[in-house]
Design a protein that fits this description.
Helices cover about 75% and strands about 0% of the residues. It has 13 helices and no strands. The chain is globular. The two termini are about 20 Å apart.
């Protein structure tokens, strides 16, 4: 299979795995604190990928192991992964899972802008328009009403989480040539431990064992498998384009949330949803490399990131 096609498949599959995170986390947050929740999600990912790494370590080429030159990106990745999920869990506590799922698309904006300004990845006209549309959609979802011009704090927390993850995605992109299993193991165990320390420091209590296991199991899928595949995709198509394909996650998350909660959201949600759909079409169109005339670029252009 062509490396680009495989990378696209990995990115979409990563999105599907992550999509279950928001609606399931909303349920578990009734029994687990936000920082503690973040901790067990990452520990579930770290432990599961650590077991996989233990059994496959001998088959990983020497050049794919993390080394000293990767330290700054690894530390940045871990610290941002501590902040982002905690912000997301607080956001989930203060707003609807449908809004959170859709607002997660703001991660594309953050990832793309950081990739362009710092890591010099190209941003086309289509991607620029899509970024503007995603920003408009996020503003609609964040706005809570005309009375007092108050903004929804939960939505703003989610946007903050997306900015952290945008930075983290680019840190991870910088070391994506290393073993994805090793990266997720380090990310999961270190970020999970950091979140656990914060949870204890802020007075959160350790939940019952059944909720710990349930949260870690969710972390295996939504964080462990998803991040592993995301890193593999980044290796071949870059941070911005991987984020483009990953943009299907919020829509799958909305479907899961509506299926579980059964509540029809308000008109502002559907307006934002339509705008986000248009933005996603542009992002995916750009990442596929199609021109407005429908002509497909050469294979060399396809691989250019």
């Amino acid at each position: 299979m062509d490396k680009k096609v495989m990378a696209i498949s990995f990115a979409i599959l990563a999105a599907v795995f992550y999509a279950v995170n928001v609606p399931m986390s909303k349920i578990l947050l009734e029994h687990v604190g936000p920082s503690m929740m973040s901790s067990y999600l990452y520990l579930g990912a770290g432990v599961s990928m650590g077991v996989l790494y233990f059994f496959t370590k001998g088959r990983i080429p020497e050049q794919e192991h993390l080394c000293r030159s990767d330290l700054k990106y690894t530390v940045g990745m871990v610290l941002l992964d501590i902040a982002a999920p905690i912000l997301l869990m607080y956001g989930l506590m203060m707003t609807t899972p449908e809004n959170v799922s859709l607002l997660n698309n703001f991660e594309i904006v953050a990832t793309s802008l950081i990739a362009f300004t710092i890591f010099k990845e190209a941003i086309s006209r289509e991607l620029s328009i899509a970024i503007i549309l995603i920003l408009i959609s996020g503003m609609i979802l964040s706005y809570e009403g005309s009375e007092g011009l108050v903004f929804n704090a939960g939505s703003l927390c989610v946007i903050g989480a997306c900015i952290c993850w945008g930075l983290e995605n680019n840190c991870t992109r910088a070391i994506s040539e290393r073993s994805s299993t090793e990266i997720v193991t380090v990310k999961g165990l270190c970020s999970g431990t950091g979140c656990f320390i914060i949870a204890l420091a802020t007075g959160e209590v350790v939940p019952e064992v059944m909720y710990v296991l349930a949260t870690m199991a969710l972390g295996v899928v939504a964080y462990g498998l998803s991040i592993n595949l995301y890193i593999k995709a980044q290796r071949h198509i870059g941070a911005a384009k991987t984020g483009a394909y990953y943009s299907v996650a919020p829509f799958i998350g909305v479907f899961f949330a509506l299926l579980i909660w059964g509540e029809v959201p308000g008109i502002s949600f559907f307006i934002a949803f339509i705008i986000m759909v248009l933005a996603t079409v542009l992002v995916i169109k750009d990442s596929l490399g199609w021109t407005w005339s429908g002509n497909r670029p050469s294979a060399q252009d396809d691989l250019d990131i």
